[in-house]
Write a structure and sequence with these properties.
Layout lengths: L2 H7 L1 H20 L34 H36 L4 H14 L3 H12 L3 H25 L5 H8 L4 H37 L11 H8 L8 H28 L1 H7 L1
Length: 279
């Protein structure tokens, strides 16, 4: 059974992929078109309920909520992609190096540093960075990215350690290949599936983290729309304008749900044991 056929038959993967594609598509379209200008204030039409003109209604400044969600998707996805990229680019090599030199001083330094970073959640890291440089989307990316580094480092090290005793790795060592070459040519390709699945999970967590940081004012700053800040601004008006919280909240829920479902589907599709069970 081909990967494409198996993917089409995997309900979790397909539902997740469709939900994720909707929000990625909205983010891409927002670069070219939005139904209204999200930076333009229209106080005369503030707090309108959903209608044919404003599908999701308007906020307390008269801005179209649907357009803000489209642009907010762009912000959330950009922050999550870059933050996960930082985690992969820095964390995977550290994990490979630690596994290649198990029980060495380098392994101990890398893993204890990871433990130290894990002691500081992304929110606390963001607060420390903000205290020095001020709140912004860039600082949110740095905070989430720093937190992702030990996640990928520990995952990579654990997966790589189980491969260093395999026959194909021993054969490569007998052939005279050094640890770096073995890690790149033999270890990394065999753990790539695991990293892809973890990447999708961290991507969804990155979107949640960005929304949380923006909610407390540490993420993207006005006039850039952000789902988290939209929720923060709506909390004092939720009793008489619930649509202000419902739509950005649903955007966060559906995006994270879609990415988690897609991650579960990818795990099923890429796990060799599950592939053999299907065939």
């Amino acid at each position: 059974m081909s990967f494409l056929t198996a993917a089409l038959r995997n309900r979790s993967f397909m539902i997740g992929a469709i939900l994720a594609a909707l929000f990625v598509g909205a983010a891409l379209v927002s670069y070219l078109w939005t139904p209204f200008d999200v930076t333009k204030l229209d106080i005369a039409h503030k707090l309108q309920t959903p209608s044919t003109e404003h599908w999701f209604g308007t906020d307390h400044f008269g801005r179209d909520i649907f357009a803000m969600i489209m642009v907010g998707a762009r912000t959330s996805i950009a922050v999550a992609v870059v933050a996960v990229g930082i985690g992969i680019i820095l964390g995977v090599p550290l994990g490979l190096a630690a596994a290649a030199r198990k029980d060495s001083l380098m392994d101990e330094i890398i893993m204890r540093t990871n433990d130290l970073v894990f002691a500081f959640p992304a929110l606390l890291i963001a607060i420390m960075i903000t205290a020095v440089f001020g709140p912004s989307a860039i600082n949110a990316i740095i905070a989430i990215g720093i937190f992702n580094i030990p996640v990928f480092a520990r995952l990579t090290r654990g997966a790589a350690l189980s491969l260093w005793t395999r026959d194909f790795v021993l054969s490569a060592r007998v052939a005279g290949k050094n640890a770096t070459r073995i890690s790149v040519e033999h270890i990394l390709p065999n753990i790539l599936n695991l990293l892809i699945v973890q990447g999708s999970v961290q991507f969804s967590l990155g979107i949640l983290a960005e929304a949380g940081l923006s909610y407390v004012g540490l993420g993207a700053q006005p006039p850039i729309p952000s789902w988290g800040r939209m929720l923060a601004e709506s909390q004092t008006m939720i009793s008489f304008a619930p649509h202000l919280a419902i739509f950005p909240g649903m955007a966060i829920v559906l995006t994270v749900l879609g990415l988690n479902l897609m991650g579960d589907g990818l795990r099923d599709l890429l796990d060799p044991r599950l592939r053999r069970a299907r065939t």
